[in-house]
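Suppose a colleague, Dr. K., hands you the sequence of a protein chain of 95 amino acids and asks what its three-dimensional shape might be. Before reaching for any lab equipment, you can write down a predicted structure in token form. Begin with the sequence itself:
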Amino acid sequence: MQDLVHVSRFVLHTLVGVTLFSLIGGATILLHYATGLIEYSGVSPGIVRTIQALELFVFASDAVCLVVFVWCETWRFLREILRPASGGGHGQTVR
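The predicted structure, expressed as tokens, is then:
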């Protein structure tokens, strides 16, 4: 039963992380489309390139944060699942 709690928490945390990644990624896609409109309207190419660079930076940062978050959650999950059973009772955590 305790393993089910760990699995449920891992799945929930991963889903929340992926949802946040998707929201930020969606905003980045909207920024990409807005950049196309700005470029079409004749704004300076230097400004358009700057916006495109920021767009890439936001998306790359979001992807890196997702990978780090999922890695940390996986590490925590595996540590909790694979730790040896302690004889001290419930509520003890391994650090």
